[in-house]
């Protein structure tokens, strides 16, 4: 096998000599030499890798063969899900496919998805971290991509118990209502001028999440400024996370960062880290002075004495099950801002759109009947209807 591979490489090298420049300058000779070596090295590595994994290929699900280095990327359309659906018709609901040099498993049926994402989640949860996500996630110290199982369990338990449970959501109901009302009043004051609804809803979502995360640590004009800065950075981060990155598909090229995705994400990470570090330092200083633990949750109707930031800071100092660091806390705060702001912003934008859509029907009803049928939506639409 090795002799055959060497003979093939030798044939390629001999053919490569036919286009070697005889009388060119030194730069042309050097470029040709580098190109020849790269071609030989690429083909040799492909043959070696194929020899090592050839016996394991039969254990993989069926799938397209693909090209060396590129895999099946040249044959996929812009709508990736449609391309996978077409391939699933030929290879079945579970197939293996190479995207670049990455071997991927594609499931395209409810039963297969349930088995992979639920029944065998412990096996398939160890997924590769995208280069941009690894930067913004403090090297995989959050929940989404955490290499330490013990740390992941502690973070998940604390997040579900302190931030995502029903009592916490209910405790902040009045806060969410007041923030939405404030946004509606701002939109009303801008009657007759163009309104960027997405920007308004995004800022409102971030304000609500900010209060749930670190309460009243930042107040007044400083709070508005921090929210605005964070909103702008989070928007850029979301856009950058959706950019296809060749470094994720061909890890050998990751060190070169050909698209500059990692470089831009590091710049955004520095901006976010400054804001988070400032907030944490303020909370630690306030806690040392005997305050800063109440937060806005009391205003939201809750009876809890600590917000999520204070709970996590206490865990950093006292958790014995798995060592937690401030970077774990920052990664959780960052992920919560990015994920929940994106989802909640879409919900608020859809809510405002629905208010306008039913406007003609509401206008035909009297105030008592409209309030009885549409509840709180009547109050919001009544303000918008004055525009």
UniProtKB/TrEMBL annotation:
Do you know which Pfam families this protein is assigned to?
A: p450
Tell whether Membrane is among the UniProt keywords: yes
Q: Which InterPro entries match?
A: Cyt_P450 (IPR001128), Cyt_P450_E_grp-I (IPR002401), Cyt_P450_sf (IPR036396)
Segments crossing the lipid bilayer: 29-48
Top-rank lineage group of the source organism? Eukaryota
Endoplasmic reticulum among keywords: no
Keyword list, A-Z: Membrane, Transmembrane, Transmembrane helix
GO molecular function per UniProt:
heme binding; iron ion binding; monooxygenase activity; oxidoreductase activity, acting on paired donors, with incorporation or reduction of molecular oxygen
Name listed for the protein in its UniProt record:
Uncharacterized protein
Task: State the organism of origin.
Answer: Colocasia esculenta
